[in-house]
Amino acid sequence: MRSRTVFAVAALAAAAFAVQGSSLRWTPKEGDEIRYLTVGKLDVGNIQAEITTTNLHRVLRVDPDGSILVEAKPVEGKAVYNGTELPVRGMTTQTKYGPAGEIKEIVGDRADATGYRMANLTSFHAPGKAVAVGDTWTAEGKSDAKTGAVAWKVDYKV
Questions:
Q1: Strand partners, 35
Q2: pLDDT tens column, 135-145
Q3: Beta strands, E only, 67-158
Q4: CA distance 131 to 20
């Protein structure tokens, strides 16, 4: 009986969490690692292409002002174009993020407009409010003449 009660309380708590929502925020510590999969689908000359990469991000430093230095390293990747699979080789970069998660600087071989664009698209941009399962939000950024980054937009869904 006791185990049923514990299960029922846990189920109710989980249901309440799903309805109420939760705040999503990244609060990294030095040494934290995140591995994630990115899938991009696009049309190239009316031909469907898909790029799939697995990346490892490691927090190298968290500064007192809340800025974060992260190393991004590709683990594996492939592109499929017109039915042909090709390997994708990424480059290791270091990115400094501001306290609000905005990109301050990229150091490495991809410290160009393309590197900033990809960093903006693959970074996590937390919602400004609590979210529940099924909720969506959008993050957007303007072009930056200093870095060469173009305007960007990312849509999220929980």
A1: 56
A2: 998 988 888 88
A3: 68-81, 84-87, 93-97, 103-108, 136-141, 152-157
A4: 8
On whether the CB atoms of residues 124 and 102 are closer than 8 A, the answer is: no
At residue 109, φ and ψ (nearest 5 deg) are -65, -20
CA atoms within 13 A on the CB side of 25: 9
Helical H segments across 45-105, by residue range: none
Instruction: Give the chain's length.
Output: 158
Q: What is the distance of C-alpha 105 from the center of its chain?
A: 17
Determine the Cα–Cα distance for residues 156 and 106; give it in Å rounded to an integer.
Answer: 24
Q: What is the pLDDT of residue 24?
A: 74
pLDDT tens digits, residue range 15-61?
Answer: 444 456 787 777 889 999 989 888 888 888 888 899 999 999 999 99
Model pTM greater than 0.85?
A: no
- Both tokens of 111, joined, read 């410290």
Cα separation, 124 vs 102, in Å, equals: 10
Beta bridge pairs of residue 139: 154
